[in-house]
Amino acid sequence: CRSQDSAPSIKNRAAAMSMSKVSRTAAALGLTGLVAPASAFSVAGPAAVTDRVTAAALRGAGQTAPAAADVAPAASAWPLAAAATALGAVAAATSARSRRAPAKLVGAAKVVAPAPRHGKSLRVAQIVVCAGAPLPEGRKLRVAIIGGGPAGASCAIELAKAGIETYMIERKLDNCKPCGGAIPLCMIEEFDLPMSIIDRKVRKMTMISPTNKEVQIGETLKEDEFIGMVRREVMDGFLRDRAVESGCKVINGLFMTMIAPKTKDEAYVLTYNDFGDSADGSARQGVKKTLEVDVVIGADGANSRVAKEIEAGDYEYAIAFQERMRIPEDKMEYYKERAEMYVGEDVSPDFYAWVFPKCDHVAVGTGTVVDKKGIQKYQQGIRDRAANRIAGGEILRVEAHPIPEHPRPWRVKDRATLIGDAAGYVTKCSGEGIYFAAKSGRMCAESIVTRSENGTRQIDDRDLFDYINKFDAKYGATYFVLDALQKLFYTSDAARESFVDLCELRYVQEVTFDSYLYKTVQGNNPLGDVALLGKTLSSLAKNNLSKPAPMRTLV
Known about the structure:
Layout: E1 2-5, H1 8-28, H2 51-58, H3 80-89, E2 126-129, E3 142-146, H4 150-161, E4 165-170, E5 182-183, H5 185-190, E6 200-202, E7 204-208, E8 214-217, E9 227-229, H6 232-246, E10 249-259, E11 268-274, E12 287-293, E13 295-298, H7 305-309, E14 317-326, H8 329-334, E15 338-342, E16 353-357, E17 362-368, H9 375-385, H10 387-390, E18 394-404, E19 412-413, E20 416-418, H11 420-423, H12 434-451, H13 461-489, H14 493-502, H15 506-518, H16 526-545
Helix pairs in contact: 3-13, 3-15, 4-6, 4-12, 12-13, 14-16
């Protein structure tokens, strides 16, 4: 057995104080009655999307979360853009990170220590966790990761480095997942990513309102600060190669099903189709094989088969579309260090549209939860709004994908767990998912390595809940903030005009960039918070009570 220091009641009081502050701020902004599910939505999508592409994206994703699945999750803000007013309006009013408390997500059943006896300090209260049985001599813990994106690959790297027998099953080794591809500066250092996989360094963000009012943000960035723009096929491939170098066995295969263990010592039996060395997806029919492992980690995206196998529950989802478009060189120069975010009923009823720069082209896309069947209409909307800036563009690729809107009701069962999109770790309002996918994968692996004593002992559900609890505690408040902000600013064009108005404030830009780039909730300036609240209320009143400004023409 091993023990860990814990002071649960102190943590609970801190959590209550922190969430109370968030609640008071939300109430002040008129956000009463909001639920706090860790929703999400990542960027990606097409424009002249065919019905076939649309159907493919929707296939298998038509699920609605039960009412009981509402939770208060975890995450952070997307690039400067969506997060702009996001972390500005409410996050700034929450405590700085030193006072931030965990927001518990559904399925995060925390292990609580027994109450200490009289006269004993809470600081010496202990949680006693018994390690699983030692594995046979010469055998290490066997872990199968289903999915090879940022979550799966990051998890595999840490497990394999610790000497754990690690398998990663991925069907699309050359997959170009529809994704805006924005990553925070801290991720480059934290995950030791080479600059060679960064297509563009975005230092400017243009926020564009429903009437085409433009607000330029990014002036608060230091010379060495930027948002990295990547292509998923490049970054994912790099992380998978690193996993192989660490000792992970990557299988080009399609996971089909699994038989769960009936006892604590029995193994999982996974069935998959092995496509061998056909990494380009040319193989149409694989060889049916089985694999025995001790632990299964689902990193297989929004339509996770692992989640279905462990009955993790359904959730609401967004549909994202994106066109990759090569535009004339002079127009590409404009997007050299710039990304654009458009809001308005014409481009999305509950999210935003975007033009993001890639290596030699731009990604033009949008997304929605409430009107998935109308996605082609909204894609045409962003093409029309950005028409002068992408004129003469050649469509290279059309992409569509479902994106989770909040964490699964349950994320652990019978030595199986979920990470990344499979778990639902994408933020609302901003739609960020890459960093949290990679982070959840790493945190999951670290818990397994520690609690299995470097793969020498069996683990159980309590060991997997260790990762869940830590992730929820670290990022829960941010998910709550972004969910509240989406409900406030993405509901009408008047509110969206206010969203863009607030982005003019230097304080909002500072809080937004710092929070996004370094994944710490910023904003602990009382005067700035009060001024921001006043600006928010006055802007909302003005835009809701006055006639909209004339539509501007973008050049």
